[in-house]
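User: Can you write out an input/output pair for a complex, sequences first and structure second?

Assistant: Here is one pair. Inputs:
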Amino acid sequence: MQEKNNKWTLKNVVTLSVFTVIIYILLMIGMIATNILLTPVGAYFASPGISALFAGPFFIVMVNKIEKRGVTFLLSLISGLLFLFMGQLYTFLVYVMFGILTELCYLGKNSYHKLVNNFSAFFLYMLALSAGGFIPMILIREQYVEWYKTVGNAESVSAMINVYGTLHGVLITIGITLVGCVAGCLIGFSILSRHVKKARI
Amino acid sequence: MMRIQDPRITLISLLAVTVTAFIISSPVQLHLLTGLCVLYLISLSKFKSALRSAVIYVCLWLLVSILPTSVGSVTVLLFMYIRILPMLAISAALISTPPSLLMWTGARMHLSQRALLAMGVLLRFFTVIKLEMQAIFQGIRARGMFPHWYSVILHPAQSYECLVLPLILRGLKLSSDLTCAAEFRGVESRAMRTCIYPTVCSLKSILGTICFIGGCIMIYYGGYFHG
């Protein structure tokens, strides 16, 4: 019975694809808007947090509707592949790594409907956006900066070093992401119980 | 019916341009790669796509060189777009391929049907979401909710709700509709998939792809020796 429940249906696949596109587009809009409004330095700090505020409800609704093993891993994998298409190799690798971690957040019974499990998975998913920058900066700093010079221009390289090259920069980014994820998840659960469940779609 | 080029040929070219775009570093190599993509599109008789890609690329480079350094944010975004433009140019040729033809090709390559369906929805929904957003904005306007452009800033919580909630419900409804349509068309059938579009894998397109891959290799090694 349990095995049957965990089998992916056609509707699950389509829902995952549709919501992945929406979440990815919201991440992109968040990145572009913060780059324009808050300068590249501000974008590195605030982009994951602000995007989380908008993407949170979609993530919560998607996970609650699909509630199958591998949903957050596949979301991370597809998002990572889309970043890979944009030339962000390290972001792709971090997304895959964090995708596995997000799946661990859903261990246990009825975990797809619990706030804590969803919040931790969503936080890891959103953190991967900035972790794609600061994890390589910690592990392979010289190589990463050299590589980044080939894909970005001078302004983006200096902004990245200023933010992800310092401990306080990384901590502020994680803090803003955390706040954005808390707000996004709470709004998501509110929308889920007040509107989506009542609409019975 | 007009014969359509086998999508596998375009897929190989997309793979070649993606790998090359990752490993090249100098602007000259990027110029050459974009030029090569434009020539490839011309060889596929996709003149409009070729012209559009070339014009966008030249305009963006001009903008990046004209704009002062004080508008760093804008140049960062433009530079990011310029980097992926060669891949977008080739992808345009692939996206214009009918979805059923793509799925038929994928089935012939023994790819998972679920993965193919997910890919099909991903490719199609990127263009559909713009229409969905337009419909949401029209609905907001029709109800007279935000009469002025600054009304959105004055009522941020309301504007958030008006945007996010309809998009969630539309997303759910769309996934239900797409699932029904796919099931109705027999997407889960285990029988061998057929396709109404006649495909062709001509000698011209094979030679064109070989030349394209050769060009990518030359661009990479040219930059390597130059560097």
